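Note to self: keep these together.
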Amino acid sequence: MEIDKKIIIKLIQALEDLKKKSKGIEINSEDNSVEEEIEVSGVVIKSPIVGTVYLAPEPESKKFIEVGKKVKKGDTIMIVEAMKTMNHIPSSSDGVVKEICVEDGQPVEFDQKIAILE
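Structure:
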């Protein structure tokens, strides 16, 4: 791949012009985005591992949980597949499913909220 020297020179000039224009203007490089944290009532179940979440044991079978369904402590609510291993995620307490925070086949991170129980 060839690099066109004319394009590089134009980019450098544009950056120098921008630098001259921004003199006297304070640029704050800190991230000022405010992350609003919403209080969640109920029991939050989080993913214990990184992987891909599955809501049913097989593609065409019934889901482990549905919104409004009662679950008991220890019931499997999802499967997180990591490195070709299917890890059953148990409910941490008794309750009714208030919200399912992930979709079938979605990648999840460690400690990501996956479900909320009332």
